Amino acid sequence: MQRRNILWTMFSSIGAAAVLAGTASRANAANVDKAKVAYHLSDLDKVAFVLGNIQNHYDGMGGPDKVKINLVIHGAALKAFHSAQASPEFSLHAAQLAKMGLVLSACINTMKAQNVTLKDLLPDFTIADKGAVVLLADLQAQGYAYLRP
Prior knowledge:
The radius of gyration is 24 Å and the shape is globular. Strands 4-3-2-1-5 form a five-stranded parallel sheet, with helices on both faces. It has helices at residues 2-30, 47-61, 88-100, 108-113, 132-141, and strands spanning 35-41, 67-73, 103-107, 125-128, 145-147. Strand 1, helix 2 (47-61) and strand 2 (67-73) form a beta-alpha-beta unit. The N and C termini lie far apart (73 Å). Helix 2 (47-61) runs parallel beside helix 3. It has 149 residues and is an alpha/beta fold. The protein is built from five helices and five strands. It has two domains: 1-32; 34-147, Hypothetical Protein Ychn, Chain: A (3-Layer(aba) Sandwich), CATH 3.40.1260.10.
């Protein structure tokens, strides 16, 4: 009789563990990180193209809840984001993307070279305080896909 109880307990424990493992797998699947993408922008003549690509990326992935995008900007491209030079339409488009979750990162070295601060840039910028290329490498190490259109 005692042997039967031991076997029953053993098989019950194995069954409970299997159920818990299946539940944990489904919970992990539901909490999968969203896709992560780092866009690298340094060419002034590609700014509008890249913002269009980012909008298309959000649309193609099913919205900002499906993908996290960081736009890392340095060099001449940062001039397009100077608030004094940006057109109202461009400013609005950048603001809409930022509202969707786009992280706008400005290279500290470029900011120094162009003699600008965050208050001189469009709203919602962060500073790549170690430089744009360092941030891009860090993002790739965190699993971000790297795109340079």
